[in-house]
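May I ask for a protein sequence together with how it folds?
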Amino acid sequence: MRSGLYVILFMCIYYSDMVCQDVLFSQHYNNMFYSNAASTGVFNGKYRVGAAYRNQYFGISPDSRITLKDIFFDARINTFNNDYFSFGALVTDEDYGIARLGKTVGYLSLSYSKLLNFDKYRARSQYIVIGTLLGYGKFYPDEGDYLFGIQFDKSSQSFDRNIQNGETLLGYKSFPDINLGLLYFLSGKTNSVYVGFSGSHINRPDVSLLARSSKKMDMRLSVLSGGQISLSGQLQLLPSVVISMQSGIYSAIAGSQFQVKYNTYESNSMKFGAFIRCTNSLDKALVSDVIISSSFEQRNLTLGISYDVNISSIRKITGMNGAFELTGIYIWGDNPLRKPLICPTF
């Protein structure tokens, strides 16, 4: 009985703030599009298409899981002086489990990459990229049967659905969404470094489903950094960190992957690594998850999988099942005129 109460209490606390918190991918390196709009067009190729799926807290119950899905496409166009313009599209879909809430947003992505320096002798380039994600979406209940605090009967210590809640629940709420990003990278054939900053929901759209109230989506500010360090001809270290702040809560993912190239082709490799996720949930800094990840890269195709082992104070409820993710990316097209462009490995 007590464990069931903990589950209910946890879900009530979690979903009371869900409209203010973004669900974030653990495989940020395979979802740079989602993390920072300035990553549009930053890849070695001409066209890119990808998709990702995240299933979180499925260990509590099938109805309590939280899912995040996205699909994206981007491409770039040569401009002048070794600069380039990139464009793309991104669609995201979120489902908040037991609360039966959904959020679907479609984005148009635009970015411009400015060459700062190119050293042809070292085959090394420096770029700064500015980008934006301009979106429009809807937030909606999906056959939800919601209870409000005013419907709690103190005498019976239970909720009474016959008590009028005095609220009108909207079928959906449409909203615009504006995001900006900035990215700098210095990249060569075997080593690279990058750092980026982004602001999401800078227009703070209203996502309240109650007719008589307003609930602004809080801005999410993020910083990410990482790089590639060559340890040998076939082994590289790919450290990275991403820190996000939203609604007074921060989330940080830090760790590294190892990349092992198993033949002479530049793009044929296996990546594996581990990360930790930290947060200041309930005003207490803690390590909430250990993330085990792996990626398989075969020429133009990349497939990634990761699993979050939940070690926070709710691990008894989740069964230590944090989340699992699947990603797929396909890149094609040569751009021989862009010799100064050498994109970093994320």
